[in-house]
Specification:
Elements: H1 8-14, H2 19-28, H3 42-80, H4 88-115, H5 119-133, E1 141-143, E2 153-155, H6 156-159, E3 160-163, H7 169-176, H8 180-189, H9 202-211, E4 215-218, E5 236-237, E6 241-246, H10 252-260, E7 277-283, E8 286-292, H11 297-304, E9 312-318, H12 325-337, E10 341-346, H13 355-362, E11 377-380, H14 389-403, E12 406-407, E13 414-423, E14 427-436, E15 444-447, E16 450-458, E17 473-479, E18 488-492, H15 495-514, H16 526-531, E19 537-544, H17 547-558, E20 566-574, H18 579-588, E21 591-595, H19 601-610, E22 614-617, H20 620-632, E23 638-655, E24 659-672, E25 676-681, E26 684-696, E27 699-700, E28 703-705, E29 709-714, E30 725-734
Parallel strand pairs: 3-4, 6-8, 6-9, 9-10, 10-11, 19-20, 19-21, 21-22
Antiparallel strand pairs: 1-2, 5-12, 7-8, 13-14, 13-18, 14-17, 15-16, 15-18, 16-17, 23-24, 23-30, 24-28, 24-29, 25-26, 25-30, 26-27, 26-29
Helix pairs in contact: 1-2, 3-4, 7-8, 11-18, 17-20, 18-19
Length: 738
């Protein structure tokens, strides 16, 4: 007997039918349960019991009827061989006609039901179409999950979903056409706690899908069948790929510069790496490919896009500076990649160097030196004098021997895009690090959603390469567009195959972008998502002008909490909002809070594409008030500042009775006479106000567009300097809805 406290899905299991079928039966009786997790009331249970009792009785009668038919048939058969046919023949005929009529009525009902348009079937058809685009071939059969109704086989295009491992719970809910709260409740029922943004492993994804009657297939990248498999007898030893990471100014590029015996730094603005570099270094003991990155933006982007091309991470820490924010960030990213870390303690030639103190501080981040009984290789080096460099290279090659890195150089090339840019006169130029196979001039290639034919193939010193092989970084031209860092790169049979792959990839990309209905978490949506049970914490990234402000903000916001949700600080730092901050917010579904800082142009562009919410403030209590109101559902209409143009100050003119006029070049958007403006210097906002004048040559101008020069006067502000950026913005007020 069903108990009053049981839920609908438990009642469904009792009668050995799916939760969806039980919901349909209950709703036919006029009840309106919200989902299969709703409690089955005594009235519902009684109605279900009655229905199944009637069906059981009907089935019993049907069995008795069939038995009568069999007996009548047997009697008729026995008498047909004799002289006469008894009256039982007519009774058999009547029974058979009655059975046929009943069967025909059932068939008509089924046909009528099939003619009814079902939105669920339309959705399944759409999913089937998209599955075809993602490279699913054939029509294999799979066994239905335990809650999917009676056991049986079904077509993979109807009940199979394409998934990626470590997809979020929200993404899985969309594929299953369920509310995230249903998946969270199901996991809770199975003894697991999860939030809407939590990423799930493949076992959990398969279990959840089975509970809702779906099979899963791990998504294979379109064009995967164009890759050639490696052959065991062709495997050859390959060079390790090493990523150099660490805090800015700790000597990453100087270290690599010494190793390469060339002046890489000399060609960089301000002695800081401005682009991603991939370099092959040949040594007596072997070869090493180095990746030199500006911070961790590229590494983060490639990790987020599923690229795994690094074998070893060299973490550079300055012996006279200690553990800095980017050092910790580098450790976190290296651990997330699951690769071994070798620590290079740099600048030991300085009088203030203290390598032992660095070793001690690294233990706080679970990096214990081999000398102290740990497993992390740490080498004292000086990029200036060269001390310890040979030992560092020896340790890298030793670690590579342990990893036993091999690849097949005979197949068609496969690699990853490390960098991509558009150069005047050359078109798209991409840096590719090959992991398998080979590539030559004239090969047809695919990189992400673009394709082409290799026109030139050069190394990092612009020397022509005849062939690129595993672990070799190469610069390639000839593609019809600019791919993204982290995109896969494959050599295909011909141009036709390359075109087919890119067309399908672009179709899937458009479909995925169209399915972003919920978007990222924004301060406006927080309360709505709390009510739906989709989030248990609001993740924040804090950037401020000085360390004191960041610390106060982190403490203040970290203490904000309600009964249902709390604010969680996942990263904080000093300086402008950068590309790395936006990428981290995108991966973590976080909101960026900026206090008296600016947003870098590249970061602003990515935030629009990734739909990351960036809030800028000048007063601490306003930040606290907005976050608290967002959690309480009382947030007033949001006011956002949309950048409409930016002009760089290139010269200054002092005009009597007028003040300072900035000779400027509009490098982005447009500058309008009525715009509000802010003056940005070294990533910090130094003034906010309005324009006093805007001129083209000697004439007043209402608006000056990108690519033109102009004279700008700012009301009540004459402290301009060459190099300042004057940003024009418009204020947009958006009313939030509950």
């Amino acid at each position: 007997m069903a108990q009053n406290s049981q839920r609908i899905h438990q009642l469904a299991k009792e009668y050995k039918i799916s939760s969806a079928a039980m919901l349909k039966i209950i709703r036919e009786f006029g009840f309106e349960p919200k989902s299969h997790m709703s409690v089955a009331t005594p009235e519902m249970v009684a109605a279900v019991q009655k229905k199944f009792a009637e069906q059981k009785q009907e089935a019993k009668k049907e069995m008795e009827h069939r038995e009568q038919v069999r007996e009548a048939v047997s009697k008729t058969t026995a008498k047909i061989g004799g002289i006469t046919v008894s009256d039982s023949t007519s009774s058999v005929a009547r029974l058979m006609r009655k059975s046929e009529k009943k069967q025909k009525r059932k068939e008509r009902r089924r046909k009528k039901e099939r003619r009814t348009v079902d939105k669920t079937e339309v959705a399944k058809s759409f999913k089937a179409t998209m599955a075809g685009l993602t490279g699913v071939k054939g029509r294999k059969k799979y066994r239905r999950g335990q809650s999917g109704g009676s056991d049986g086989e079904f077509d993979n295009l109807e009940n199979v979903i394409q998934v990626n491992e470590f997809m979020s719970l929200a993404e899985l809910a969309k594929l299953l056409d369920r509310k995230p709260a249903e998946l969270i409740a199901k996991l809770f029922e199975l003894g697991m706690m999860a939030t809407i943004n939590q990423r799930l492993d493949m076992d959990t994804i398969e279990m959840l899908a089975a509970e809702f009657g779906f099979e899963v297939r791990q998504m294979v990248e379109i064009g995967e069948d164009a890759r050639q498999d490696e052959k065991e007898h062709n495997l050859r030893k390959r060079a390790p790929v090493v990523t150099v990471m660490g805090h800015v100014d700790h000597g990453k590029t100087s270290l690599l510069d010494f190793i390469r015996k060339t002046n890489v730094v000399g060609g960089e603005a301000g002695a800081i790496t401005q682009h991603i570099g991939a370099y092959m270094v040949k040594l007596e003991g072997g070869e090493i490919s180095f990746l030199d990155t500006p911070g961790h933006e590229a590494f983060t982007a490639m990790r987020a896009r599923g690229a795994h091309l690094t074998d070893i991470v060299v973490l550079v820490v300055a012996a006279d500076d200690g553990i800095r924010p980017q050092t910790v960030e580098a450790i976190d990213h290296a651990r997330a990649a699951g690769v071994p870390i070798i620590v290079a303690i740099n600048k030991i030639d300085k009088p203030t160097a203290d390598p032992e103190s660095i070793r001690s501080k690294l233990t706080e981040h679970n990096l214990v030196s081999e000398e102290w009984g740990g497993k992390t290789i740490m080498v004292d080096v000086s990029a200036k004098t060269g001390e310890g460099i040979d030992k560092l290279l020896e340790m890298i090659l030793l670690q590579a021997e342990v990893l036993d890195l091999k690849a097949d150089p005979e197949i068609r090339g496969q690699g990853t895009v490390v960098d991509a840019r558009l150069e005047k006169g050359r078109g798209p130029v991409i840096t590719v690090l090959f992991q398998k196979g080979n590539c030559r001039v004239g090969d047809s290639v695919v990189a992400g959603t673009v394709s082409g034919r290799v026109r030139t193939l050069t190394d990092d010193r612009d020397q022509t390469l005849e062939v690129a092989t595993p672990s070799v970084p190469a610069q390639i031209t000839g593609l019809n567009g600019v791919p993204q860092a982290g995109d896969s790169f494959i050599v295909v049979k011909n141009d036709q195959e390359a075109k087919e792959i890119t067309v399908k990839r672009n179709q899937v990309k458009r479909e995925q972008e169209a399915r972003r209905t919920h978007g990222r978490t924004t301060l406006d949506k927080v309360f709505d998502r709390i009510k739906e049970g989709q989030i248990k914490e609001v993740r924040l990234i804090i950037k401020g002008d000085v360390d004191g402000s960041v610390e106060v903000l982190s403490d203040t916001l970290g203490r904000i909490a309600t009964d249902e949700v709390k604010a969680s600080i996942i990263h904080s730092g000093v300086g402008a909002v950068t590309e790395s901050d936006v990428l981290l917010a995108s991966v973590s579904d976080a909101i960026i809070i900026g206090f008296q800082v600016n947003v870098e142009p590249r970061a602003r562009e990515i935030s629009r594409r990734e739909q990351v919410d960036i809030r800028l403030y000048d007063v601490i209590y306003e930040v606290e008030e907005d976050v608290r109101k967002a959690l309480e559902g009382l947030l007033a209409p949001s006011v956002t500042e949309n950048l409409v143009g930016a002009a760089e100050v290139r010269n200054l003119f002092k005009v009597p009775k007028v003040g300072v006029i900035a000779g400027s070049y509009v490098r982005e958007g447009r500058i309008n006479r009525k715009d509000r403006i802010q003056v940005v210097r070294d990533g910090k906002i130094v003034f906010t106000g309005v324009l006093a004048s805007l001129k083209r040559f000697k004439d007043d101008a209402r608006e000056v567009k990108e690519g033109f020069e102009c004279g700008i006067g700012i009301e009540n502000f004459n402290d301009l300097k060459v190099g300042d950026v004057i940003e024009a913005y418009e204020i947009v007020e958006t009313a939030r809805t509950l």
